[in-house]
Amino acid sequence: MPGSKLRTTRVAATKVATRAKGSTGAGRVRPRSAAALQAIPRPDHEAIRYFRKKGVGDFVTRIHVADPLQLVATERDGVASVFVKDLAGELRIPAQRMFAILGVPKATAEKKIASGELLAGSGGRAALGVARLLGMAQAMVEESTATEARGFDAARWLGKWLERPQPALGGRKPADLVDTPTGLAVVTRLLGAVASGAYQ
User: Fold this and answer.
1) How far apart are CA 53 and CA 170, in angstroms?
2) DSSP code for 198
């Protein structure tokens, strides 16, 4: 994202890929090349929609390269509630746990999914935040030339990382902070630090 997209190095991507032992299976969310990202249309800063047929990867990619005004529009409108369920599947996190991470009551989430409603407010913004974190993780892998990066499942790695207590967070899990803007900003910086090798 222009102005705020966190850029990572090839060395950083290698470190991320080699740390996630046991996650060498083919990733379900596949990053796109830089050329493909630049080719994505950005019409008049419209809100970005989730199309289930295109998958989580398509939405995450669009969010990752979106400009600030597109993100503002998307935050205001909200995201498709079913995206939360699908995102949970990509991260290998139980849907009920994902609802809790985003600060959305399970009954509310399931009702919105069943009726096809958008998830707006703090829950929707948190969901977009996690999508942006996934975009960062994908970028780390995409920019790596390491052998370990081939077929690396960035989504699965991120799901595990979010649920792992971090010393830099006072022993808290990143997943327990992303439901607020400040917490999400802290987690985003930490993920960037992991990419740069500042933390083990």
Assistant:
1) 40
2) S
